[in-house]
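Subject: design request, 316 residues
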């Protein structure tokens, strides 16, 4: 397929570009930054400089292009601040709402029928869901009368737009938290080195993660075999609490472990991060296994940390 990939130079965009090309697809990578042209060419993609948030400019940029599919992987995580409460005008929410609408308009202009959008497991809601596994049949996008509602609403908007768009085969991927190169885990390692990371006392909530390479592999599988109108959880096999996850990172990278603070203190310092770290979402990946023929090559965070340690030794 000819694939238009928005977010091609991001944390998942780079490994996704490599995997798409390895699977025989052509990739047209969207970037806002002209300096990323050469980076995309080096990966083997055709660069397209455009701002997906500027609808008119985006449609001008894709004039004359043809593609079979569009993949939406736009985020603004580098600009996010854990100290701020999520707001409707937050850039990540704008990318999920207006950005999705603009990419769907571009899909129609270039004749693309398939549309794969990024989503997150936190669209199921923030809070303690206990020991049971959450599946795609559980409610998604339901307001909770909390300051996290804008995040949940933005995720629901991205999915709903993809599913109801006329003439479009929409698919949503509900990723777990990313770890691996250029993801949350890099940020956490840096913060732990500087003794700037805190987690809830007692270990915090238990959530599902996914190595970024496995997220990219699942995205290719969804592009090729996903069913229109379906959402898929993309997570590894073992949910983990924050103490165990960050402790494993600290051991791998030789950093101090994070501080442990009372929950009320953490919520004063970084309210959104605290809410995320006290939520428990054990999420099932069974549907992605059955329907996409995908399974994580890194089944647990322990496997991922062993892989990172091996890579570090080879690089030394």
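Subject: RE: design request

Done. Sequence follows.
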């Amino acid at each position: 397929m000819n694939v238009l990939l928005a977010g091609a130079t991001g944390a998942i965009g780079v490994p996704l570009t490599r995997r798409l090309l390895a699977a025989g697809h052509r990739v047209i990578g969207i970037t806002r930054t002209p300096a990323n042209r050469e980076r995309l060419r080096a990966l083997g993609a055709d660069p397209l400089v455009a701002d997906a948030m500027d609808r008119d400019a985006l449609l001008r940029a894709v004039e004359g292009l043809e593609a079979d599919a569009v993949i939406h992987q736009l985020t603004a995580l580098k600009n996010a601040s854990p100290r701020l409460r999520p707001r409707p005008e937050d850039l990540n929410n704008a990318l999920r709402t207006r950005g999705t609408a603009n990419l769907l308009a571009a899909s129609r202009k270039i004749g693309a029928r398939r549309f794969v959008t990024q989503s997150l497991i936190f669209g199921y809601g923030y809070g303690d869901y206990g020991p049971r596994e959450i599946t795609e049949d559980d409610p998604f996008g339901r307001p909770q009368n909390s300051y996290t509602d804008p995040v949940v609403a933005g995720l629901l908007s991205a999915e709903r737009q993809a599913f109801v768009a006329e003439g479009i085969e929409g698919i949503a991927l509900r990723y777990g938290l990313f770890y691996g190169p250029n993801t949350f885990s890099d940020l956490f390692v840096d913060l732990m080195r500087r003794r700037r990371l805190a987690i809830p006392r007692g270990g915090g909530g238990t959530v599902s993660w996914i190595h970024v390479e496995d997220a990219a592999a699942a995205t290719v599988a969804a592009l090729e075999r996903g069913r229109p109108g379906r959402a898929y959880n993309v997570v590894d096999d073992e949910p983990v609490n924050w103490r165990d996850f960050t402790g494993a990172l600290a051991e791998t990278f030789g950093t101090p472990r994070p501080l442990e603070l009372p929950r009320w203190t953490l919520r004063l310092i970084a309210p959104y991060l605290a809410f995320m770290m006290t939520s428990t979402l054990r999420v099932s990946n069974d549907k992605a296994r059955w329907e996409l023929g995908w399974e994580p090559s890194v089944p647990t965070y322990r496997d991922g940390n062993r892989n990172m340690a091996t890579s570090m030794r080879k690089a030394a």
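Residues 91-110 form the longest helix (20 residues).
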